[in-house]
Amino acid sequence: MTRIFVCMLLSCLFVISCTNKVTPTLEPEKEPQEQGIPDAEIKIPPGVEKPNYGIIEPTPKTVNQSRVDPPFWWVGMYNPEIQVMIHDNIIGDYTVTVDHPGVTLTKVNKVENPNYLFIDLTISNVAKTGKFPIKLTRNGTTKEYPFELRQRYRTTNRIQGISDKDFVYLLMPDRFSNGDPSNDIVPGMYQDQINRDRMYYRHGGDLQGIINHLDYLKDLGVTALWINPVQENDQPYESYHGYAITDHYMIDRRFGTNKLYKELVDKCHDMGIKVVMDIIHNHVGDKHFFIQDLPSKDWIHQYSAFTRTTYRAPTLMDPYASEADKERMSDAWFDYHMPDLNQKNPLLGKYLTQNNIWWIEFSGIDSYRVDTYAYPDQEYMAEWAKAILQEYPNFHMFAETWVHGSPIQAQFTQNNNLREGYNSNMPAVTDFQLYYAINEALDRNQGWTEGIARVYFTLAKDFLYEDPTRNVVFLDNHDLSRFYSMIKENDDKFKSGISFLLTTRGIPMMYYGTEILLKNYSDPDGKVRQDFPGGWTGDVSNKFTSAGRSEKENETFEFVKKLANYRKNNEVLQTGRLTQFVPEDGVYTYFRHNQQKTVMVMMNTHNNIANVALDRFQERLSTFSKGENIVSGEVFDLGKEMVLPPNQTVILELKK
Ligand code: CA
Fold first, then answer.
1. How far is the CA of 267 from the centre of ligand 1 (A)?
2. What is the tens place of the pLDDT at every residue in 441-480?
3. What topology is assigned to 159-569 in CATH?
4. Which of 152, 208, 518, 641 could pair with 513 as two cysteines, CB 3.0-4.6 Å apart?
């Protein structure tokens, strides 16, 4: 999730929240909008027009470049029905004909704006592959639009899904590495300059930059890449983050091409790395062609004046919620430049779902991370997830659920029986509850329900999920203060956090640069989206190499690498059962175990040395007498007591 904050344009209500600077402590009860952004940082540059806040009419505009979405499809998909959108000047009353073996024209849908036709086709399993035209005729005039049916891909390593066997690395493509300076500036696109000194300008990073550093990621132990959105964001300002899409079918040319994206996925798969695409159903950029030339008034949610969502997800399941609150949560806009899509419009719903299927089939990606999941229409999202999993049963998806409280978060996952009559069909979520808990555990004083107890209580609530091991666990991300800053740059606490991330249940995710101790507070979010040092030719230091890293950065990198690779090579930390013991005196002990191995993790969150008697843990320790520290390799007798230095965590593979 990301927002374009424009304090000077905000209503009185929001001026108050925007002037409150975020404090560098964890504030889990605050919703994202309340975290505020100092407006001095985000002044919109002169010449950038103000967004349209009022009603947008579906009156036809001049179409300079006609388009057909999707540009091609495949024979032999689970769902044989597709809907082709044609966008061109005043075509609403043309007659449509399609003449191709195995393709049946079933319906032509017209909308208020005559620049659009939505054509329903049924593709038989024996339809002929190849190119053919969709013909539009009127009064003896014929227009032809190219379409194509392709053979489906059959290679074995495509579309693997991600699971708790993986270690995910999240990166922002504009900020990771510039592998192709020739695409930094694309003539005709809105942001026609790069400026690495300004956090909201583009910096030039791209897909080639990612490809160039796959060896680095593999060395670190990464097995899956989550890349922030890569589709075109041809917006006048702050387009670098990718969450304001203007063309669903095209990789932003400043990142590369569709072909290069597919190559990136293939190269990753060849190296044992899966790929997660970041998608957004809730909104698009206001320069999207279908916002600039709106198909119908109900394509988006419209208000006579700009109306912001409440960011209050509980209204979706609150038994006492007012209709007004429910409506504003789902239908009001996420931000000024991000019109709120009406997924209940079946033509738009189909357009979005089909686009997501298109990318999976085209590129072979393994998972979707679904941005702002609580904000689109929930019934639509449930149908969407079902449609995706019907086509690709091995695919994985996880929803961004930046919400507060385990029941609220769990309600967004499939088969949970929490919301009567509703099943999201969504396999997993980003585990914000565990993020709040581990950050609090390492940053706050201990108490009966505070500190490390939060981690214990959060995991104890896993009965809410059908399968909590599918959830994505993280210490920070592109919207949050970097973990190293959150724990006040305490190196022991930092290692404790990494240790927890890579040994607890679920799919661990690390934000880029954590392994080299990048820091900063998310006030505003641009500050945690730094360029990876060495990603640009001429950078003062190159932290992709050990020679470019400081001694401390190398120690951190090696620590992450050691743990990640142990995890990668030992199923016990991927899929082994978790047994946790109630924390006592700020010390939290848990075990991962399977038939072959048992790993014991003991975390001291106190500023004092802890002397921990081991007899409490006999049910898991009973047959073991030694422990091998999986980071240092040191082996020692377990004895009756374990001594832990302040704020340190030890991870032991137990031996007989
Ligand atoms: Ca570039």
1. 19
2. 998 888 888 999 999 999 999 999 999 999 999 999 999 9
3. TIM Barrel (3.20.20)
4. 518
Whether this model's pTM surpasses 0.90: yes
Q: What's the pLDDT band for 42 if we cut at 50, 70, 90?
A: very low
CATH 2.60.40.10 for the 67-151 domain, yes or no:
yes
Tell me which of 174, 278, 400, 523 is the catalytic residue. Answer: 400
User: Which two three-digit tokens encode residue 111?
Assistant: 């909308």
3-state SS of 569-633 is HCHHHHHCEEEECCCECCEEEEEEECCCCEEEEEEECCCCCEEEECHHHHHHHCCCCEEEECCCC
Active site (annotated) includes residue 335 = no
Q: 444 - beta bridge partners?
A: none
CA distance 482 to 477: 7
Q: Which of 361, 371, 440, 476 is catalytic?
A: 371
Kindly tell me the burial class for residue 106, based on how many C-beta atoms sit within 10 Å of its own C-beta (0-12, 13-18, 19 or more): exposed
User: Whose structure tokens read 């905000």?
Assistant: 10
What does the alpha-carbon distance between residue 504 and residue 270 come to, in Å, rounded to a whole number?
28
pLDDT tens-digit series, residues 508-566: 999 999 999 999 999 888 899 999 999 999 999 999 999 999 999 999 999 999 999 99
Question: What does the alpha-carbon distance between residue 479 and residue 311 come to, in Å, rounded to a whole number?
Answer: 15
Q: 254 C-alpha to center of ligand 1: Å?
A: 6
- In the reported structure, the alpha carbon of residue 177 is separated from the centroid of ligand 1 by a whole-number distance in angstroms of 8
CATH number of 573-655: 2.60.40.1180
